[in-house]
Signal protein (Micromonospora rosaria), 296 residues
Amino acid sequence: MAEISHFEYGWITPALSYALSVLGSVLGLVCAGRIRTASSSRQRAWWGLLSAWALGGTAIWSMHFMAMLGFAVPGTRIRYDVPITIASTVIAVAAVGLGLVIVGTGRLSVLRVLIGGLFTGAGVAAMHYTGMAAMRLDGSFSYDTLRVVASVVIAVVAATVALWLAMTVRRPLAIAGSALLMGIAVNGMHFTGMSALSVHLHPGTGEVAGAGVSTLLTPIVLAVIFVLVGLVYALIAAPTEEDRAATAYLDARASAVGPAAAPPSPPDPVGLRGRSTLGQPGTPFPSRRTPPPPQG
């Protein structure tokens, strides 16, 4: 059995993985909070998609890959199968999206949260072990069953709590505290699953195929940056409840005032305007006549 190092670069990779999970959780919770306040099904779908990308793509999958950068096995190089790595991303986003659909449509209930947490947690665990299966090295893997089960239980519990928080938390301080707890839960699930892994080296079996860490790191970092910038822009550009209330207030005032009134006419106390024919259609304008010459 080979020796395994989970912190090849010290505290840098776990610190960055925790920061990514907290940041993704904050954005995901804020986006999820817009789902139930959205005024149309199209807006609910839009905010649900953004929340799934933030939670599944950033808080879970990006955190997983960042933590994997610190994983090393002395005596062999580690490569990654790109299609399987991409599949793990899709699984993470789809799992969170499914959970948000379950709890975000219809009346919120304990049963909905439990069912959504079960599906989402199972998806998160599937993402983790799919990402592990993407690793290529000069050896084979084996897992401790008890620790695998423990990691799945942690994933389900963390997903259930995350969905409940996503549908109930609204205040900024509560969102920040919830994101910190979610970061601990996601990282705890990851490193519990990693502790279940054992590696058996088979040296001399040939060149290890796959993409190296440096090859995958650049596009992943760029994708994370673009996604985060897009999410922040969407949150800033979206109208808030105060904006909607102000717009409704202005519309109500405009409806109450009605069309602009005509300018008032000058007073006509003796009714000359009513008896006058000047300016009416068909009335000739009086011409100026020269007075007749005097007689004699």
In short: Residues 22 and 228 are 12 Å apart (CA to CA). The two ends are 147 Å apart (CA to CA).
